[in-house]
Design brief:
Creatine Amidinohydrolase, 394 residues, Creatine Amidinohydrolase, Chain A, domain 1, 4-stranded mixed sheet, homodimer, alpha/beta
Chain lengths: 394, 394
């Protein structure tokens, strides 16, 4: 396994520590095959079995203290200046490394808002506090939320390339699906086709495979996180997809709408709904840029939808995309309790977001689209080719 | 997806609550595609996107409070008496459900010792304490460590059947490997063969694939969690494997030793080491039974090894096996700092353990074996066919 990207992200972490004026970052984990701190994939790429401390400083030092059986694999990544193996207990090595670095602030991975910055378990937190008892480091612990948010959110060019490739493969699978789907087919048959295509393209699911792609045929299917059923495609009905793949660790997440019938058969009710969704996404895309707040961007699309007489969508306009389909950090969402602080965050150049929303029609169910964009200093660039018209399958 | 097994484990959880005299168990999670509490696979099998509260009581009530988009999928599992969807925030529904159940003790998933019972993140813990502020539930929170340990450890027959099948497939792959491996082959080539076989058998890796199987050729390769290299098999040398597969969610974990040469070529140094390892495992297997403490079982094998003039192995004799290759709970390990309380736990009938250890020879590197057993009231039953002789490849 090569670790170039993980190495670059580790350097970026040190640079962000400096920017934030935080002395050190401690990633404190164990048995990561059971439950892994989400940052590990970003900065290491290996599992760790015993209690492990990965230490990064604003001066650029990178130290790993790991169990003796993990040491070789961590050493082989080439990411760390020092790999310190231990056998019986980590306490002594951890304290002596901290004494060498003498950090006045130590960021650790917990966050009320950002699940991808909330990788420390309660048990590991208790253990850490016990290990540090009686030292000055005990009171030096702070949340790494801002650090992890910036590190995860600010994609380096190699990361954007990988997401672009995942998006390209996703669109190519949508294209090959057009001659395949037809009236009478079940959601489950369509779902299987997508999985065959993923195998052919050597990609995996960006989220749980039983609802990836979500395939929703007709007006009565509730959108959401439930899987495809034996519900069949009918003439004059809509077909909705929510589909994302993972390529070399990075994800796409795209929604598309098909209609079964000719262009001239499309009821006005559907056309109006489709155009509203499409244009709300475009509105948001012309508004978003470096420095906007998450909820401001959501507000643009949400207002557009309600101004056109539709109920507001019951989710956020967009989440970040990267190693995970929901990549954490700033959310393009409304200021609702369940989103906590995340919609108050600031959008940064290099952030990759989805733009997604639905409206509900009276007779044809929901109409929903989702595009992927990367934010720039002055605006954004689409990674997906936005769906501008309904795909009509005759 | 069928959820029969998850349903049975959920019932078992309620029964264990009753046994322990705990009123309720709260599994409190969010965005589990990023970092999932390890118990979710055991009792649910689905991902959950928004903040979710799964509530189980000693009276057998099972309630899920989940985001509106997750509700259908959770409902479809058929596990819960009530599925309560919410849109904007979970607080109100969670408090009203707790008010209905009025628990005086609420177990939540944190543990210093057992990573598989330590599924709550620090951020979620802070959020929970905030949600419960000013209620009597705030002081009702206790660790679910004992509950989760028993639930995970006490395999029901369906779980043992699945592990047995994973073990059988593992042994079948070892068998098909015998005519394949030969002098001159690299560890990496052998590793690829195992992966081809896994595909053929429709199983996945029980742990990270780059070191599963671990393949260690010759005296200079350090055993551990590092992957196979271009190190080549030589005549007169040993080849070591550590290999486990996952079949319908359940794992095997087996180590085997091959020698390259005829039986009569095996140096006495190797024979003595092999027999010591084999017999230490057998010693432990005749000692283990329901009611033994973890460290007592480890002690039997460890003493056998040191009595035979070898240094003691630098790991635990055995870990539990199930949904995970390291399934948590009681450990058959020494009383070392890094193992915390886990070796003090009591072995129970229905527990599935590995028995594994190595000794180091002067000229041929390490000799290491690992078997899988299920504990009974009066002893144990081997799930693997114990390796009684070196496999000699001429």
């Amino acid at each position: 396994m090569r670790h170039d990207l993980e190495g670059l992200k580790s350097e970026q972490a040190c640079a962000i520590l400096k920017e934030l004026g935080i002395d050190a970052w401690l990633v404190w984990v164990r048995e990561t095959s059971q439950m892994a701190d989400p940052v590990l994939k970003l900065i290491l790429g290996n599992d760790l079995v015993w209690q492990s401390a990965l230490l990064y400083t604003k001066k650029g030092q990178k130290t790993a203290i790991v169990g003796n059986f993990d040491a070789d694999a961590v050493e082989n990544t080439g990411i760390f200046d020092h790999v310190i193996p231990y056998t019986k207990g980590i306490r002594e090595d951890l304290l002596s490394q901290l004494d060498g670095l003498a950090p006045k602030s130590i960021a650790i991975n917990y966050s009320k808002t950002d699940v991808s910055a909330d990788g420390m378990s309660v048990g590991m937190h208790i253990l850490l506090k016990e290990l540090l008892e009686g030292t000055t480091y005990q009171t030096a612990l702070i949340s790494a939320e801002e650090l992890v948010g910036r590190l995860r959110g600010r994609k380096i060019p190699e990361e954007i390339d990988r997401i672009q490739k995942a998006v390209d493969i996703t669109e190519s699978i949508f294209d090959s699906c057009k001659p395949f789907v037809r009236v009478g087919m079940s959601e489950q048959e369509v779902h299987r086709f997508f999985h065959d295509m993923m195998l052919q393209h050597g990609v995996t699911c960006a989220w749980q495979e039983d609802h990836n792609p979500a395939v929703d045929a007709g007006p009565d299917k509730k959108f959401g996180h439930s899987g495809p059923t034996d519900n069949k495609i009918k003439s004059g009905h809509l077909l909705h997809f929510d589909f994302g793949v993972r390529w070399t660790g990075y994800c796409s997440d795209i929604q598309r709408m098909f209609f079964f019938g000719s262009k001239s058969d499309v009821p006005e009710e559907i056309t109006t709904a489709f155009n509203t969704v499409r244009d709300a996404i475009q509105k948001a895309s012309t508004f978003i840029k470096h420095g906007r707040k998450g909820h401001e961007v959501d507000e643009v699309a949400r207002t557009y939808v309600t101004d056109h007489g539709y109920e507001e969508y019951q989710h956020a306009l967009g989440h970040q995309l990267g190693r995970l389909a929901h990549d954490g950090g700033t959310l393009l969402g409304p200021l609702w309790e369940r989103y906590g602080e995340s919609p108050k965050g600031v959008v940064e150049a290099g952030n990759v977001f989805t733009l997604e929303l639905y409206v509900t029609t009276e007779n044809y169910g929901q109409v929903s689209l989702e595009e992927d964009i990367v934010v720039t200093k002055s605006g954004c660039t689409f990674l997906s080719r936005p769906q501008m018209d309904l795909v009509c399958i005759e």
